[in-house]
Amino acid sequence: MAKRGLKARAAVIVERLKAEYPEATCTLDYDEAWKLLVSVRLAAQCTDARVNEITPILFERWPNALALADADPDEVEAVVRPCGLGKSKARDIVACMRMLRDEYSGHVPDSMEELLKLPGVGRKSANLVMGDVFGKPAIVTDTHCIRLSRRMGLTDEKEPAKVEKALLPLIPPEESNDFCHRLVLHGRAVCTARTKPDCEHCCLNDLCEKRI
Fold it and tell me: Is the CB of residue 12 less than 8 Å from the CB of residue 164?
């Protein structure tokens, strides 16, 4: 499909998802930028629901970034173990908080370049922070974004970076962050991965190229 046709398709998809899911918010619980960094690292290969069960315990014990920077990674691992990959996640979280303390005066930077310097932070995490915390255009290429974008014919790519590159010119910058949150909601409720998608009740069923 020509780029003009793809952009028109994307515009309709954006509007329909907005009507279907008017409240588009991150499903990770946080009230400070550093907490989102921690949560999104814990969410790797783990559900947001499980992360939201663990982070209150973690943040009660280490209530700010500076406290977590001084934490023993083994003690952090003991708390975050239910999220899986506890050792590597604990190591990255403590190292990330230490870098925030030592190089950014405890503040989370607001540029992609600086965010990607932080231990355990990749483009997906950085985009989530850029969009949710700082209100900047961001395409968060999680599994829902990749799966739905392919099913809806917006891209044939599978690699997160390539999907992000494909979607950037199609999704209006001011809609990009909420669009990705809506893909998560739609991917969980309707266009599922592990069970048969509910195409009959999908608000995009006449646009989807991958009717299943």
Answer: no
Report the distance separating Cα 125 and Cα 110, nearest Å: 12
Q: What global pTM score does this model have?
A: 0.91
18: annotated active-site residue: no
How many residues make up the chain in this entry?
Answer: 212
Report the alpha-carbon distance of residue 61 to residue 173 in Å, rounded: 38
Q: What angle do CA 193, 124, 156 make, to 5 degrees?
A: 50
- Catalytic entry in 142, 162, 165, 206: 142
Cβ atoms of 76 and 93 closer than 8 Å: yes
Question: Are the C-beta atoms of 118 and 163 separated by less than 8 Å?
Answer: no
Residue 90 tokens read as 């604990």
Tens digit of pLDDT for each residue in 122-162? 999 999 999 999 999 999 999 999 999 999 999 999 999 99
Domain span holding position 44:
33-121
Nearest-angstrom CA–CA distance, 97 and 37:
9
Token pair listed for 26: 């991150």
- Tell me if 153 is assigned to some domain: yes
The answer to whether position 99 is within a domain reads yes
In whole angstroms, how far apart are CA 132 and each of 57, 60, 61?
23, 23, 25
* Number of independent structural domains in the chain: 2
Catalytic residue among 89, 92, 124, 132: 124
Q: Please confirm, yes or no, whether 124 is among the known catalytic residues.
A: yes
